[in-house]
Amino acid sequence: MRQDVPALTLTDTGVAPETGRQGDEELRAARRALVLGGLGFIASAGGFGLVYGLAAREAGVSAIEALAMSLLVLSGAAQFAAVGLIAQGSAWPSIILLTALLNARHLLYSAALAPWVVGRPRLERAAMAHVLTDETFGLAIAHFRRLGRADMWGYWVAAAFVCLPWPVASALGVIGGQAIPDPERIGLDVVFPAAMAGLAVGLVTDRREIVAAVVGASVAVTVGIAAAGASVGVVVGGLVGPLVGLAIPERRTADTAS
Amino acid sequence: MSLGLVGLALLMAAVTYPSRAVPLLAPGIERLPPVVLAYLRLVGPAILAALAATNTVLLVDAAGRPSIHVGIEWLAVGVGIALVAWRHNLLLGIAAAVALAAVFRAIAGG
After folding, report:
1. Distance between CA A128 and CA A216 in Å, rounded?
2. Which residue among A118, A129, A195 sits closest to B94, beta carbon to beta carbon?
3. Are A45 and A14 contacting, i.e. CB atoms less than 8 angstroms apart?
4. How far is the C-alpha of B103 from the C-alpha of A221, rounded, in Å?
5. Which among A140, A74, A148, A133 is positioned nearest to A113, based on CA atoms?
6. Which has more pLDDT, A154 or A190?
7. Contact status, residue A47 vs residue A169, Cβ threshold 8 Å
8. Would you list the DSSP string of A118-152?
9. pLDDT band per the 50, 70, 90 thresholds, residue B61
10. Which of A128, A239, B10, B70 has the fewest CB atoms below 10 angstroms from its CB?
11. Does residue A141 share a domain with residue A243?
12. How far is CA B83 from CA A154, B77, B97, B105, in A?
């Protein structure tokens, strides 16, 4: 089952009131796809977590501090930028400001997920927000749309694929990161873009979504070059792509799933 | 062991959390106009494509200057996209992209 509009009426379990064998089978199939799709992130988060830990150690960050940053901030881009600035001796306010700018894109993720989880307890939504990373968003939004409803089990599993290996690998990287091979040498650097692109493909069901994706990507690269920052580009692409997509008359083509 | 930067981590978390939480916690999101919900539905494909594109195409040098990068990553991600679209299997697409990049770099590296 797929719907264009998120289900806004949920049961206490976070699942729209659909029962029966077909619904169970759909749920199992969607969860299986989610788990299979998320496996690559474990290797990616683990590999780059180790590299982050190594970079943190070279910047004079202790294992506890690196672990605290990974647990509390949970944002690879901001953390890599932070250890770079720490190594240069930058002042805390500049690091905090850069973190806020780099992580502004989460506002869009949160807004896109919000209609799916209306009715969930406020405390649960507050906890969801803490683990809302790029990867969590990509996996969760694809999973919800595959089902046509929210599935909180799926959300937490999606979050676990990154939020568990990242801090563990960060701490290990500080302790013994010099022993690891370069993740780029074994191709782990393409896990993230390949996964994000694949998840985007899975979300495309009509012309509007194709246009939003193509425009979003094009604007992100253009602005990233012009504004000297990929994060700025991602935010602008994420804002402009849907606007242009909305201008296209809606006509569904074919159902796809990732 | 130094703990001084735990405070910095807390402050970084403090400026990150609101952007993650405010829309999720805002009341009345279900009463937004249909056009806004339609817009939010398009945010997913747009931002995922934007993340994929910037992580494939942009290369940032040591001074923080971004430039267009052309390399095996383009082909690897392209093959991954094609496989996901064809087989509807994300893991297969990721595995193919990683394998392609790793093999190419092994050959190119001698």
Report:
1. 25
2. A195
3. no
4. 27
5. A140
6. A154
7. yes
8. TTS-HHHHHHHHHT--HHHHHHHHHHHHHHTS--H
9. confident
10. B70
11. no
12. 23, 10, 9, 21
Q: Which residue has the tokens 């690891």?
A: A180
Residue A257 — very low, low, confident or very high, per pLDDT cuts 50/70/90?
Answer: very low
Asked if residue A143 is part of any domain, the answer here is yes
Which H or E element spans position A43?
helix A21-58
Shortest CA gap A250–chain B (Å)? 10
Task: Name the domain count of chain A.
Answer: 2
The tens digit of pLDDT for each residue in A100-118 reads 877 888 988 999 999 999 9
**The overall pTM is greater than 0.80:** no
Q: A245 and B32 in contact by Cβ < 8 A?
A: no
Dihedral of the alpha carbons of A139, A100, A121, A134, in degrees to the nearest 10: 0
Contact of A29 with chain B, judged by CB distance below 8 Å, is answered with no
For A165-192, the pLDDT digits (tens) are 999 999 998 888 667 777 788 888 888 8
> Does residue A10 register a pLDDT over 50?
no
| A16 domain-assigned | no
Q: What is the 3-state secondary structure (H, E, C) of A180-207?
A: CCCCCCCCHHHHHHHHHHHHHHHHCCEH
Average pLDDT over residues A55-60: 85
User: Are A28 and A144 in the same domain?
Assistant: yes
Candidates B29, B37, B52; nearest CB to A5: B37
In the stretch 164-203 of chain A, residues with CB closer than 8 A to chain B read: 184-203
Q: Tell whether the model's pLDDT for residue A1 goes beyond 90.
A: no
Question: Considering only CB atoms, which chain A residues are within 8 Å of B5?
Answer: 61-62, 65, 68-69, 86
Q: Is residue A11 part of a domain?
A: no
Q: Which domain holds residue A71?
A: 21-183
Residue of B nearest to A230 (CA): B54
Identify the three-state secondary structure at position A12. coil
Q: What is the largest CA-CA distance in chain A?
A: 60
Distance of CA A161 to the CA centre of its chain: 10
Does A212 map to a domain?
yes
Interface test with A, best of B1, B32, B48 (most A CBs within 10 A): B48
Residue A249 DSSP one-character state: P
